[in-house]
Design a protein that fits this description.
The protein is an all-beta fold. The chain is built from no helices and 20 strands. 0% of the residues lie in helices and 41% in strands.
Length: 254
């Protein structure tokens, strides 16, 4: 996350942050208590970015084990300040904070009885449950005592989960084929949104919903969609004419 000041008119560069190794950054998330940001790199670990006066300071998150973060795909801080990391090859990683700031690692992978070593996305719902969206192995709910795994019809729905979002009644799941709306209690697929619903066949990469408001859906190649309350068809918002402009990785709001 380093670079040189650009020449965009009207842009002021306040600080060049060069304390983070050159690596792909799949996730930037605000710290839950509002004190700064998490910078999650694909292969060089996790860093905190915190404001110090008018500037930012960078600190790497250390663990009490010799462990190398590789192929990191996703990240979540839960309501207990535990950090959850979805990765390829290492499965789901939980970092538990200690009293002196150190982090203890718990691994959820095939060696520990977990369903997969390849986790694409991780999500905490309104009740504090952690959900793991797996590559080719459906969806897993994690609680302290057991794993509850749910798979989908691979040909019809797709069985790789790229995005998860929940409300009081439904769990919204983005797969490599489309968008699923499932019942939170039974896991049953309530709706499957396809081209007949206004959603072109594509990988659903991001989902955002706040309260009873509209569901916003980001895709890999076809931009942004919105499903308004009471509707069964989505409306498309093309962001631009190029491929990159229409590749959505994250949606957020207030």
């Amino acid at each position: 996350m380093s670079g040189k000041p650009g020449k965009t008119p009207g842009t002021d560069v306040l600080q060049i942050i060069d304390n983070i190794p050159v690596s792909k950054v799949p996730v930037i998330k605000k710290v839950r208590n509002g004190s700064g940001f998490y910078i999650v790199t694909e292969k060089e670990g996790i860093y905190t970015l915190k404001k110090d006066g008018i500037l930012f300071t960078v600190k790497k998150i250390e663990t009490d084990d010799v462990f190398k973060f590789t192929d990191v795909q996703s990240f979540c801080e839960d309501n207990q300040a535990n950090l959850w990391i979805g990765s390829f090859k290492n499965g789901l990683i939980k970092l538990i904070p200690g009293p002196d700031g150190e982090k203890t690692i718990v691994l959820f992978n095939k060696s520990s009885g977990f369903v997969t070593d390849n986790v694409k996305t991780v999500y905490e719902d309104l009740e504090g449950n952690i959900w793991s969206g797996n590559y080719g192995e459906g969806l897993t709910q994690i609680n302290p005592r057991l794993f509850s795994n749910q798979t989908f019809d691979r040909n019809r729905y797709g069985n790789t989960v790229f995005a998860i979002c929940s409300d009081n009644q439904y769990l919204w799941i983005g797969t490599g084929n489309s968008l699923l709306k499932t019942d939170r209690l039974t896991g049953k697929v309530v709706s499957f949104f396809t081209s007949d619903s206004g959603l072109l066949k594509d990988t659903v990469t991001a989902i955002y919903k706040s309260g009873e408001e509209s569901v916003w859906v980001g895709t890999y190649k076809n931009g942004l969609y919105v499903l308004n309350p009471g509707k069964e068809k989505l409306s498309r918002y093309a962001i631009g004419s190029g491929t990159l402009e229409n590749s959505v990785t994250t949606i957020t709001g207030r």
